[in-house]
Amino acid sequence: MDIAKVVLKRGRERSVEHRHPWIFSGAVARTEGSPAVGGTVEVCTDAGRALGFGSWSPASQICVRMLSFDAARAPDEAFIGERIASSLARRAEGGRAALSEANRGVRLVHGESDGLPGLVVDAYDGWCVTQFASAGAERWRQTTVAALMAAGAKGVFDRSDVDVRKREGLPMEGTVGLLAGVEPPELIEIHEGAIRYLVDVRNGHKTGFYLDQREARARVAALAEGRETLNCFSYTGGFGLACAAGGARSVENLDLSRPALDLAARNFDLLRAGGAGAGCAVAFTCADVFRQLRLYRDQGRKFGLIVLDPPKFAETKGQLMRAARGYKDINLLGMKLLRPGGILATFSCSGAMGSDFFETVCREAACDARRDFQIVGRTHQASDHPVSIAFPEGAYLKGLILRAVD
Ligand code: SAH
Predict the structure, then answer these.
(1) Which of 130, 291, 376, 389 has a CB 3.0–4.6 Å from the CB of 401, allowing a cystine?
(2) Pairing verdict, β 303-308 and 119-124
(3) Which of 192, 235, 258 is the pocket-test mutation for ligand 1 (most atoms within 8 Å of CB)?
(4) Active-site residue, 44 included
């Protein structure tokens, strides 16, 4: 079968030559043949030079996502299977395959940076949870599921209920459910060091858990000893559990979501049952962080450690300035609530906000708080969420760990 062609406008081949995976519709001069939605297209320069192959996504501004920069081999099922297998092999630890390791929570496939645009696969204790977020990823769904089962998945559960599918013109119905293998239990237990987390893959955020903060949780926990901790945007307890295990004097988990806090409470029970965090007083507060921080400011409350891990405030560059005001607001409030020597662990998962800009926002907040801070550390998404050097957009999560020096 003839593969359809996407011909770029003159001079618009540069980013593809730099192995960037996205081609925007404005860069395309014309298509030849009739490319299918999600189907493979050959990408050529205006002069007819072949640059590689990508997936066609006509409804999206990103109309092609490159799969291969090798013009000699058109991607087929075997190609996709190999990409998945090598992605999994990179997550093997000490020779142990990621899927056969009991209670491991790990991102197995991280989209563009693993050469599989639009595809996310997380594994929890051997169950895979998928997100097919682009037309190309959707096109290879069966191949993906088969490859994961062949690699030893207990089951594959889909959580493609992500808004980006709308921009790709993909249906939102039937995006949650079992695709193959055995139904996962209501809650899956994963281990992160000494900590056990229960993960709800059906109703939880994203695929159920924030695996991307694994390394940051360990960094913060190492600073938690003896501190009264306020864990803002706690979700199911993530940073709070790590801090309790790290010897925090107390942990207050603050979130708007009651189900998230209920699961957090069960996770703290598990922690204590395992013999950790025994001396730590734990509280769960269902409230809006913006309001609660103001309340604590007015009450003159102080904390030794504050974690700010909010949801994405900016979806796009256009929302950046509004998002910056939100980040500045919570950081300013958090900084004011710290005891002398207190630690602020503050994060942004907005891909549209670069780490330099995030640091500028925090600097301005510190200035307005009239306090001095040292940067104790900078954190990034965990290493199973890799960033391809050709695709800086893949670096979405950044964090600053600051110490109040006054
Ligand atoms: N720190 C967590 C992940 C946080 S996700 C971990 O490591 O697992 C962001 C959380 O913020 C979600 O649980 C969401 O319910 C909560 N949230 C969003 N807006 C909020 C607000 N205004 N006030 C309180 N919680 C909020």
Answers:
(1) 376
(2) unpaired
(3) 235
(4) no
